[in-house]
Amino acid sequence: MADKILKQIKVKVWRQKGPKTKGKFETYIVNDISTGTSFLEMMDILNDNLIREGKEPIAFDHDCREGICGVCSLYVNGRPHGPDDDVTTCQLHMRKFKDGETITIEPYRSKAFPIIKDLIVERNAFDRILQAGGYISINTGGVPDGNAIPVSYDDAEAAMDAASCIGCGACVAACKNASAMLFVSAKVSHLARLPQGKVEAARRAKSMVAKMDELGFGNCTNTGACEAECPKGISISNIAKLNREYLCAKIKD
Amino acid sequence: MTKIKTHIPEGPLADKWTKHKADLKVVSPANKRKLDIIVVGTGLAGASAASSFAEMGYNVLNFCYQDSPRRAHSIAAQGGINAAKNYQNDNDSVYRLFYDTIKGGDYRSREANVFRLAEVSGSIIDQSVAQGVPFAREYGGLLANRSFGGVLVSRTFYARGQTGQQLLLGAYGSLNRQVASGQVKMYYRHEMLDLVMIDGKARGIIVRDLATGEIKRFGAHAVVLATGGYGNVFFLSTNAMGSNGSAVWQAYKKGAYMSNPAFVQIHPTCIPVHGDQQSKLTLMSESLRNDGRVWVPKDKDTVEKLRKGTVKASQVPEEDRDYYLERRYPSYGNLVPRDVASRAAKERCDAGFGVNETGKAVFLDFKDAINRLGRHVVEARYGNLFQMYEKITDVNPYEEPMMIYPAIHYTMGGLWVDYNMMTNIPGLYAIGEANFSDHGANRLGASALMQGLADGYFVIPYTIGDYLADEIQVPRIDTNHKAFEETESAIKAKLEKLKNTKGKTPVDYFHKELGRIMWDKVGMSRNEKELKEAVEEIKKLEKEFWADVRIPGDLNELNQEIEKALRLADFFEMGELMALDALERNESCGGHFREESKTEEGEALRDDKNGAYVSAWEYKGEDADPEMNVEKLEFEFVTPTQRSYK
């Protein structure tokens, strides 16, 4: 727990004024950072310095800062969410870096996630995929008692594993094809594993996959990079489940 | 006093809601199509209300400042959601949930509202299950429960330590379905900056598109605020960085009453502050107190050794440990309500028994639970929380106890609403954490999720019809009306003023300073002298802010500094009102502890003769003091007693 002080680090950051302007890397120096400081707190300190020097701070997405909202999205030293496993960028701490190190920070790069400014990208494509069918079609009210739909312990756990996805987009950023298969499969298999969700499982799989293709995400070639970089440990076996659901639906057509 | 009209129906407690529903006006399907509703916020309350309205046939415009509705801060709620299902056969009931909530809130909430909350709680579970929320299950396939603070039954439903996330994703799914159907128009990265009123009614909002900086107008027949709490007044809190009180505050400045702003919940189990570079505090779920035991050393010698690191917590023998919650509150032990647990931790730390370098931490120890249940059981219950703790602190909580300290977590205060969830401004509603209504002076664990969804799924869809039934002749709101013009000009002038201050100091500096004043003087323990000092210090800081803040970049682009500056400008004013409200309330109750009002043993002392009221603050203009109206709390069905968890 004993925190040390990193005397100096260099931060090489992608700067881009707007969606249509050309971006480039800039390098900044940050001094005296405690290893107990979070990565985004280091960014806060850098921004504080920049503002005091009369420069523009670096725009980056962040909100809950406890690894659950899924909005933080940086590509740090070549990895989405940086050099630690099973964490989001906001949970990454400076103890993972060395004194004097140069840290490279980029936005997620994918055709489906256009850059708005600096490190902020637009991930609305994920919302649109879910709007295509990532739900159970029921209205408020008129539903049976909670215990009227028994769910086996294992199914509930498997559904929960898949439902843990935070929609951060690291899977897309990690994939050489910029495929959204892990994201789509997590929702499809979460719902398909529950009796409530089975009713429209076929329709759901087809329409979500069609929307994913339409929005410019790439194909899955089973490299497994998505699973390796997912901060929530979403398993690639969900993709197999999606393929099964999708195939079954197509065969029935 | 005559200004306050609660619209609580007469009759026996258990019949009030049923009777009221029968009396509410209903809008026909053909007319619903002609009516527009604005919902601001997409957390549990906002998403559930927006999707429910749309399913009923209203046209809904839904706004969130985040890039997606799924990121609203309800997503971060961990431990669970209460419901009076009595699935455990432990003699739970609607009445018991009502009673626990009223008592837990230290008798500072309305009986009728709290009873209704308990009454609809079961339907929330049914709804969520039907949406595919993967609640924890027993091997027989039925729903599992656990206990939470301040109660003696097991009525909390949960999805690992991610209950808020799963409930929100359920509501977000329903919302997505309505967005796809076109019944909800969703506006992402859009922040409400002001409320527009026409002829005394709420008729629209002015928003800023955060991605482009464009200022836009939206009109509707009713406006629903589901914008959460104002805990970020304190800078350091468990709230998301963007959580803010600005929508609520603009409504207040347009005439809506603000109730009980001093009632803030301080959560006992958060990861302690590590240093002055900290931006945010992380909660460790209250569910951990089911199996974790809270302690500090009995003697200061051990405290010193722990602080120096010459001895590890796990090496401190049993006889040298003071399990102070079990000692002081034998019947509830580690599961006392949050306010009680927080004050007890502060008391030990103030007495010099705090265990980390700063002296502001106590232990939460799982040694006994791991010995009793086995590590795999503890891991199944709390694995994700333990992982989160280790990532942040670099300490393995399976081997060494967690260190925790209280932090700002939730605001019980909020906009005043009547029984229909309408503020005193016709057509303006407030639901979820944004209103004041159900938690009194202290919220029980796992009740925020319950309230947000109760309001959104099962209360406001009924009550809003009563107002809208009289609006069916009103054509679509014209945003060229001069009220929109004027409100927009005022907003633009405020933005320009901030931008043109051309000072030297970043927004965050002022926010941290405000947080320091609030935590020291309007925090866990309050007294008249310091509250008065706080008001003066906030005013001084606010002046400095308006003279010396620096906003880089342009207004017509994505600009995170102007976003923060706008929110902070409101936080100064809110902080001041919180201090005023705390000054007016001379008693101690729930999370509000006045040092002048305590028992000989140091416990909070309530004053029912003078304190059984809800404050309803009325804005009187920039240079005038606000006026405190009062809603008297009547207890017809329960008798307030001094709360005891001993």
From the structure provided, what is the oligomeric state, counting identical versus distinct chains?
heterodimer
**CATH level 1 class label of the largest domain in chain A:** Mainly Alpha
Secondary-structure element pattern of chain A, one letter each: EEHEEEEEHHHHHHHH
The residue fraction in helices of chain A comes out at 25-40%
Quickly count the domains of chain A. 2
Mind summarizing the main beta sheet of chain A?
5 strands, mixed
What is the CATH homologous superfamily assignment of the domain at 268-408 in chain B? Succinate dehydrogenase/fumarate reductase flavoprotein, catalytic domain
The CATH architecture of the domain at 268-408 in chain B comes to Alpha-Beta Complex
How many DSSP-defined strands of chain B?
Answer: 19
The assigned structural class of chain A equals alpha+beta
Description:
The complex is a heterodimer of chains A (253) and B (646). By secondary structure, chain A is of the alpha+beta class. The mean pLDDT of chain A is 96. Chain A is built from nine helices and seven strands; from the N terminus they run ββαβββββαααααααα. Chain B is an alpha+beta fold and 646 residues long. Among the domains of chain B are: 268-408, Alpha-Beta Complex (Flavocytochrome C3, Chain A, domain 1); 482-612, Fumarate reductase/succinate dehydrogenase flavoprotein-like, C-terminal domain (Methane Monooxygenase Hydroxylase, Chain G, domain 1), CATH 1.20.58. Helix content of chain B is 38%, strand content 14%. In chain B, the strands form five sheets. Chain B has a five-stranded parallel sheet. In chain B, 60% of the residues are buried. Classes of the chains: A alpha+beta (253), B alpha+beta (646). At the A-B interface, helix 1, helix 2 and helix 3 of A face helix 3, helix 5, helix 6, helix 12 and helix 13 of B.
